[in-house]
Amino acid sequence: MSFLVHGTLSPSVEDSHVGVFLRKHDITSLARSGACNGKPVRIEHGNTDVGVVISAWEHDGKLDCVFKLNNDSIESLLARGFVQSGCCPELSLGYSVVMENSEQGLTGGYKEVNEISIVKKGARHSCHIHGFKK
Predict the structure, then answer these.
(1) Pairing relation of β-strands 105-119 and 40-43?
(2) Distance CA 115, CA 41 (A)
(3) Distance (Å, rounded) from C-alpha 57 to C-alpha 55?
């Protein structure tokens, strides 16, 4: 039985931001390229994959996604329970940043998505789980 979850991976940040957060053009690029699709889903950035991202898209400047939770391990069953109970109501995007040296100094450049995590409290505002379907 599939267990699908919809949520926001990243809020919108202006392109003038020079740090490591995803900027608007990063979100657009990730959504158009399908770079999040197939990435593993984990609990609190742990080492065990409990699901996989099916699709990610840009919506109102934010990066949203749908992912499927597995049904093959204790950890994946726990993840389902965490989502259903609201114990872990947020998402966190794990990514690497290639730093670039420019006229503004050292800035965050290209971002590569490594995984997404179901978390109790994410580092970014408005990265919530919006719904799920068993």
Answers:
(1) parallel
(2) 6
(3) 7
